[in-house]
Specification:
The complex is a heterodimer of chains A (about 270) and B (about 350). In chain A, about 40% of the residues lie in helices and about 10% in strands. Chain A is of the alpha/beta class and about 270 residues long. Chain A has a single domain, classed as Rossmann fold, CATH 3.40.50. Chain A has a five-stranded parallel β-sheet with strand order 1-2-3-7-6, with helices on both faces. In chain A, helix 7 links the parallel strand 2 and strand 3. The radius of gyration of chain A is 17 Å and the shape is globular. In chain B, helix 9 links the parallel strand 8 and strand 9. Chain B is built from 13 helices and twelve strands. In chain B, helix 4 runs parallel beside helix 6. Chain B is globular, with a radius of gyration of 20 Å. Chain B is of the alpha/beta class. Chain B has two domains: about 170 residues, Rossmann fold; about 140 residues, Rossmann fold. Classes of the chains: A alpha/beta (about 270), B alpha/beta (about 350). At the A-B interface, helix 6 and helix 7 of A face helix 4 and helix 6 of B.
Chain lengths: ~270, ~350
Amino acid sequence: MVQVPLEERARRIRRTILRLAATSVGCHLGGSLSMVELLVVLLGRVMKFRPEEPRWEERDSLILSKGHAAAGLYAALAEFGFFDTEELVQRYNADGSPFTGHVNAAVPGVEFPTGSLGHGVGLGVGLAMGYRLRQRSNRVFVVCGDGEMGEGSNWEALQIAAQHHLSRLTVLVDRNGGQNDGPTEAILSQASLVERLRAFGLKTVEVDGHDLDALGRALEEPSEEPRAIVARTQKGAGVPMFRGKGPHYATFNADQLRRALTSLGEVTP
Amino acid sequence: MTGSPTSSTTSSGADLLTSPQDWLREQPGLPNRQVFRHTLARLADVEPRIVLLEADLAGGGDPFPVRHPGRFFNLGICEAAMLDIACGMAATGHVVFAHTFAPFGAMRACEQVRLGLAYARANVKLVCDYGGLSGAFFGPTHHAIEDLAILRAMPGMTVVSPADGLETIQATRALLEMEGPVYLRLGRNRVTRLEVARPAFALGRAMCLREGGDVGIIAHGEVGVSVALDVATRLEAQGVSARVVNLHTLKPFDEEAILETAERTRLLVTVEEHSILGGLGGAVCESVATHGVGRRVVRAGIQDRYDSTAGTHEALLQRHGLEAGALVESILNALPRPRLAAMAPGSRRG
């Protein structure tokens, strides 16, 4: 199998996300683009999985707690072979298709349905506890939004992760600084997020969330405790025309798609 | 008495699983929630996939953590996280029982139940005691009068409300044998053992406990079925015969049994320790109205208000008309006069 550089994978995933934004229903664009490197490093460097056998017992698990960024997850799962990218673009929101606007567990590679915020950490803690009880070494990765850290249930579950020393668990926070109604800092500040995660007992690091190497190193660092990675990202990252402030939700017309793809570096006809 | 607080075998050697009737007979009045705990601990002796989660309401005297400490997790006061965690654990092949009080399991963690149990179909059994007004003196924060209406509306849930100890054992075993999410609703207090011949227990299948042709009484749970049988006995003394149906599984709903009861009787009565809105009473009305069965339905249950005055469980139930004497009067007032040709000899209302 030809090794595709992770940078190229990230660019292709972004291309798919932009195409999904150009469907009749659009997608949660900014938060899909901001987490692309997180998913690329997880799926391309860190996680064990078999796309042809999504329920493989030895697999590591990925839970997208910020389930509104479904387009980003679907695009990444397609890039890593769980299904075909063209099938995704054709069937996204098609009548009877599994590709709904919030993460659907009927999509291959998805462990749990998400979209209602504040569930992913608890589900991940449960997986980690269940694997430990079965004496299995599967790792569990949960991707949260920074705005999502306003949900109290996350903090309930984080306490439990620390109490039970769930070293299999890693929580990644996509710290893109934006949420539905505007800037996270203006609505419910997460300025103390790193300190709070540490205080809760998680081994916590803050990294540039678009730096593939930095993310990879943080994820591969051994740990006896559950870990948190606060990934500083930009909404709409990778598409320079958004200047780091991509829209939370977007529905593109053909012209907007062409301009976005050009900005991404695509040569478009 | 049990041989020891953590044993599922009585001093005379009766085993809960192989001779549940004997086991129960030696500990009369044991609350269903304790019966459940002994049952689960006993089942876990033979089923390694069972895990029990608690959110700081395990109480004392549970044999499970003593016998199976590696599969018992008291997670702390965090019902919402507990149910997400339950779903995660279930996904790794465990059969997860999660226990808390009904107001917290069904309402505080309602959306976790919806997402993880109902929608994602986790193999999680949510077991809640303090159903209905059984938390009595502890007040409406600890009552659950709305839980069944909420849980019944969630697609894919199995909702079970056992009547006595034997049924609690039978239900718990049945839940283990089925794959998928369950809400098992128990009370808090001592339970009357039903001294009545009963058909075999099967989830989703109503159980006719008594035949009769005038009134069809449909009930569930610790209070409901006991009151229903008492009412039937009292009605008989007045020349009115009542069919009593124990609908221990509210979902899947045995509509056939309800319609059959409606066809065979002249008045339907529902008895349950739940709001008169949305529970069994609501379900029966939906069924008979949908099928055009012209039967009036008397709904005995908790009235549509929070009851914050102190009192015993029995006193609270009486206030809401959930006792045989008051219910017999309501039934006799509501019972349509039979046509002369169909009138039974000796009928009080002849």
